[in-house]
Design a protein that fits this description.
Pfam families: SET (PF00856), zf-MYND (PF01753). This is SET domain-containing protein. Keywords: Metal-binding, Zinc, Zinc-finger. The protein is an alpha+beta fold. It contains 16 helices and twelve strands. It has helices at about 5, 10-15, 20-35, 95-105, 115-125, 155-170, 180-195, 195-220, 235-250, 255-260, 270-295, 305-320, 325-335, 340-355, 425-430, 440-449, and strands at about 40-45, 50-55, 65, 70-75, 140-145, 150-155, 320-325, 365-370, 380, 385, 400, 410-415. Strand 5 (about 140-145) and strand 6 (about 150-155) form a beta hairpin.
């Protein structure tokens, strides 16, 4: 066991304890009020800890909830395809920049002549305007405050919000507040080569540290300086502030990552113990790199392997795909719908770029995120709601739509899996979440089998 796990065993236990029903109720009531999310409530349940309930009637197709993420990441492999805001994940730049940048970074096919490549450079730097592109305006590109050239934003407010929330500790630029930029780069490289869920965990830890520091600054300012009070590392006051900063993560359902991760289909059951030890070792390696980059002596329990494993496990069990539709797809669909004569003229300009993009012209922003309210929604194989982006939903928020009538007071449920599968297949998939579904459909199918 790690030194931190041993030294701070009591504090780690408190960080991982399940919140009381009263804590759950108060936290989510405040959260829903702050986010001005009307129409749903989060309440403790008898069987699943907590659930989301309708506070009004919903009809099929109604918007039930838009839930901003607590933390989220764009998949590393997707960053070549899409340039998006590092905070809200909306597309940024211009249609020209999106197309030119993707073709340039991927070195995609198309005509490999000098003329085409010159046009590509002009596109990427927005010096060549495509027909009708102004019908699809995008926010301009704002640089990272720390100068890392790895994350960009749609506005100064998004840049500042992300900086204050977590990025200031995870920025590799000259303005970074990390302890060691080289160590941070190694951590990021390790995550990109193994599993980018580590980047999500790093964001969660950074967010907690920065929130703790903010709370501590207020506490230090308010306390009586004349009493010469000295707070030792992780003294009572410090730890109570750390618990307060940790509260958003306290509310999430957690298990250790190496215990709850699904066994890959190519791993035999007889090799399960070895596989889970390998996963634990992978988490340990990631954590050691993160510690070298952003360790905070006043937040040491956050850097225990037990806490790190539970944070990653929480994301493994509760994350939702982050998907934002590409405006480039909308642009080419618009061109395709033009009157034939006009389309032929425009096609001469746009066709080389469309052909070079190939099927990749419609790639969305893809990633993973943790949404505090959506993560409270329980599973059903006959759900009354679904995560579904409408045409107007062009950012990283989770969007939950009613797929049938939902009465006031009824629990809002979604499906964690493809509910069209057979009973035994559904049960096998849901075993990874640690429960056996007892929804009306499963009970009926179980009795009839």
């Amino acid at each position: 066991m790690e030194v931190i796990d041993t030294q701070f065993a009591d504090q780690i236990s408190l960080l991982l304890q399940s919140p009381s029903p009263l804590q759950v109720q108060e936290y989510f009531d405040d959260l829903l009020t702050t986010k001005r999310s009307h129409g749903v409530q989060v309440k403790p349940t008898n069987h699943y800890g907590k659930g989301v309930y309708a506070d009004m009637d919903f009809e099929e197709g109604d918007l039930v909830l838009k839930d901003p993420m607590l933390v989220g990441i764009q998949h590393s492999s997707n960053k070549i395809d899409c340039l998006v805001c590092g905070c809200c994940f909306c597309f940024i730049g211009s249609i020209e920049m999106q197309i030119g940048r993707k073709l340039f970074l991927q070195g995609l096919g198309g005509p490999k002549d000098v003329c085409f490549n010159e046009k590509l450079e002009l596109l990427m730097h927005e010096k060549l305007e495509l027909p009708y592109s102004k019908k699809f305006p995008l926010p301009g590109v704002i640089n990272c405050p720390g100068g890392c050239k790895e994350v960009y934003y749609c506005s100064k407010s998004c840049a500042q919000a992300d900086w204050d929330n977590c990025h200031s500790l995870l920025c590799t630029g000259e303005g970074s507040k990390s302890l060691n930029n080289k160590a941070l780069s190694k951590f990021i490289q390790h995550a990109n080569e193994t599993n980018d869920i580590f980047l999500l965990a790093a964001k969660a830890i950074s967010c907690t540290i920065l929130k703790y520091r903010s709370l501590k600054a207020v506490y230090d300012k308010e306390k009586d300086k004349e009493k010469n009070h000295v707070s030792d590392v992780l003294g009572n006051h410090n730890f109570s502030l750390l618990l307060k900063a940790w509260k958003p993560l306290l509310m999430g359902y957690k298990r250790r990552w190496w215990d709850c991760i699904a066994l890959p289909i190519d791993v035999d059951v007889s090799e399960e113990d070895s596989f889970r030890m390998q996963i634990k070792q992978l988490a340990f390696e990631s954590l050691e790199l993160l510690k070298a980059a952003i360790l905070d002596e006043e937040c040491l329990p956050l850097f225990s392997l037990e806490i790190y494993g539970h944070i990653i496990g929480m994301f493994e069990l509760n994350n939702l795909d982050l998907v934002v539709a590409s405006p480039v797809e909308d642009y080419f669909l618009y061109i395709d719908d033009l009157p034939e004569a006009e389309k032929k003229e425009v096609d001469e300009i746009t066709r080389p770029f469309f052909d070079a993009l190939g099927e990749g012209y419609s790639v969305c922003c893809e990633g993973t995120a943790f949404f505090p309210i959506q993560s409270c929604m329980n599973h059903s194989c006959c759900p009354n709601a679904k995560a579904f982006k409408r045409d107007e939903d062009r950012d990283g928020q989770a969007t939950i739509i009613a797929c049938k009538h939902i009465k006031k007071g009824e629990e809002v449920t979604i499906s964690y899996i493809d509910e069209d599968l057979e009973l035994e297949v559904r049960r096998a998939l849901l075993a990874d979440y640690g429960f056996i579904c007892k929804c009306p459909r499963c009970v009926e199918e179980d009795h009839s089998s």
